[in-house]
User: Fold these one by one.
Assistant:
Number 1:
Amino acid sequence: MFERLLPHMRVNTVYEINLDELHSRGVRGIITDLDNTLVGAKEALATPELIQWLDGVRSRGFQVVIVSNNNDSRVGKFASPLNIPYIHAARKPAAKAFRRALKVLGLEAGQTVVIGDQMLTDVLGGNRMGLFTILVTPIAPADEGIMTRVNRQIERIALIRLRKKGLWYEGEIK
Ligand SMILES: [Mg+2]
């Protein structure tokens, strides 16, 4: 069961993702989480560094959609100035929002990656849809809400099991 929580790739930040490699593998779409993936959970707007990264992503020919479990005012305020489509109150890991996101992108699962900081929402949801999943280290874990804290406890249990099975290696990143 815990294998479904395993991402295909782990990075510290989105900036470490090798976009050219993804592109050469036929990836054309990015479904990304917002809170603690793109900016800290309490940061309202994109940082200059993130804006520059998103410009680079789009100029390479990737399409981007933000899929967040957070509410419309949080996600809309963040995404609108960037001109990025978004789905709020997504209820990840449920499949519905991922299906909607693929429709927004106009792409197939095999052409799309999911980026997020949570194994129980972003990674599990993406894996179940057959998407390539990329786990980032949460930007500001101290700012996480109650639901996320509960998810982190389950993540910890999952990590113990995955390490025992030899499926999770330390030192792979950082
Ligand atoms: Mg998140």
Number 2:
Amino acid sequence: METSKAIKTRRSIRDFKSTPVEKDVLVDIIKAAQQAPSQANSQPWHVYLATGDTLTEYKRRFQQLSQANKKSKLFLEKAQTGQWSPTEQIKMAKWNVELAQTLDGMQYIYSNSQYALYNAPAIAILTLPKNSPAWSIYDLGAFAQTLMLAATDHGLASISASEFVKYPELGYGVLDISKKEVAVMGIGLGYEDSTRQINQLHTSRQLLQDTLTFFA
Ligand SMILES: Cc1cc2nc3c(=O)[nH]c(=O)nc-3n(C[C@H](O)[C@H](O)[C@H](O)COP(=O)(O)O)c2cc1C
């Protein structure tokens, strides 16, 4: 696939088919993500890829904690909308409108998809060593996007979501994440269920002039 096509067609998918993804494909995608740039080639990332019974257990315990209204304990703490500038808050509000329009007001579809961890048949939990410098967060972002573009290239859909890592004890308990690491983000991978209303969400982007200041 052309790189430009992968960039343009990647979007967040929130309900996957139950079809499993072959291990070789998943390994290929992680291999591709390893090409991401990082500060002095530090490559601070590690990926814990959950599929099969391990993922079923991860989801089961996630749902138990959700039902018990367990407070999330994200590494990158849950930010309050007010922490963003007013300009960003407007864009975030627009996303909410786009979502509501897609779901025709049935917001519970979104909540259900979060609760099911989007029915993803594979989840990549991305970690960093504890106490990493902020640069490593930047590096992990590049890694994540490279991973998702490689997934698109393999015909897979994806979603990058903090929901996957809101209960760190699941990473340590089910995936045996090293106590020296923190789970920063999760990426769901699988095949899109295009019959689902929630997957009809196509997000807009701000005007180029709001992103780019060009000098000649
Ligand atoms: C750091 C980060 C956290 C996100 N967390 C969630 C999440 O918890 N739930 C969700 O449905 N989408 C989540 N998303 C997906 C964004 O909503 C999505 O990327 C954005 O609306 C743009 O849409 P697109 O990915 O379809 O282009 C997250 C994305 C990022 C980069």
